[in-house]
Design a protein that fits this description.
This protein has nine helices and no strands. The chain is mostly helical.
C-alpha cells in the first residue's frame, strides 16, 4: 500500500492527540462559576494562548474529517449495496467535525478583538456561551455517526460486535442535551482511537459478506 494511502488511516490518532494538546494548553481558564469580569481578564491576559490552543483544536478537527473519509470507505466496502448507512455515518462525522471546528471560534474572536480594542464584559460572556451551543449540535450530529457505523458493524465483520454495541449505546446519551456534550467530549475521542485501531488492523477494502451469509 502506498504511503499516501497508509497514513490517512492514522488520522484519528492525530485528531485526538491535537485535541488533548489543545485542552492542556487551555489549562488555567476560569471555571463556569467565574464572573464575566474574571473571564474578560483571562481573555485579555491569555490572548495568544487562546488563539494557539483554538487553532490546534481546529487542526484536530481537520484530522478528524480525514478519519471520517477513511471510515466511510471501510464501511462502504463492508456494507455494499446502496451504502446508505455508510453515507449516514459519514454525514454525521462531517457535521460533527464542522460544529466542533466552530467551538473555539468565539473565544478566538474574543482574544483577537481584545488585542486590538476593548471588549465589553457582556460581549465576552456571549462569546463564552456560544461554544456550548456548538457542542450540543455536534453531539446530536454524532448520533448519525454512531448509528450508521454501529449498524454496519452489526451486519458485517468490519468491526467487532462489542464495538458496534458500544457505538449504539452512545446514541441515547447523545440525545439528551444536558449530558450529550459530555458524552461527545469523553466518548468521541475514545471511540475514534479504538476505531482507528480496527481500521489499521483490518486494512482490506474488499466487500465483506454479512454475518450469516455464505
Amino acid at each position: 500500500m502506498r504511503v499516501a494511502e497508509r497514513w490517512p488511516r492514522w488520522a484519528g490518532v492525530v485528531a485526538v492527540a491535537l485535541w488533548i494538546v489543545s485542552v492542556l494548553s487551555s489549562s488555567g481558564a476560569p471555571g463556569e462559576n467565574a464572573s464575566e469580569a474574571e473571564y474578560l481578564a483571562y481573555i485579555q491576559e491569555s490572548a495568544d494562548r487562546i488563539i494557539l490552543g483554538g487553532s490546534v483544536f481546529m487542526l484536530g478537527c481537520v484530522a478528524f474529517l480525514c478519519f471520517a473519509v477513511v471510515l466511510r470507505e471501510r464501511l462502504a466496502a463492508a456494507e455494499g449495496g446502496s451504502r446508505m448507512l455508510s453515507n449516514l455515518a459519514f454525514l454525521g462525522a462531517a457535521v460533527v467535525g464542522a460544529f466542533m471546528m466552530l467551538t473555539p471560534g468565539p473565544e478566538i474572536a474574543a482574544a483577537i478583538t481584545a488585542e486590538e480594542q476593548e471588549v465589553s464584559t457582556s460581549a465576552a460572556a456571549a462569546m463564552r456561551m456560544l461554544p456550548e451551543a456548538f457542542l450540543v449540535a455536534a453531539a446530536l450530529s454524532a448520533i448519525l455517526l454512531m448509528l450508521g457505523s454501529g449498524l454496519v458493524a452489526l451486519r458485517t465483520r468490519v468491526f467487532p460486535k462489542a464495538w458496534a454495541w458500544f457505538s449504539l449505546l452512545l446514541v441515547p446519551l447523545l440525545v439528551i442535551p444536558q449530558i450529550g456534550w459530555a458524552a461527545l467530549l469523553l466518548g468521541l475521542p475514545v471511540w475514534v482511537l479504538v476505531t482507528t485501531v480496527f481500521l489499521v488492523r483490518r486494512p482490506g477494502t474488499e466487500p465483506m459478506t454479512a454475518v450469516g451469509e455464505p
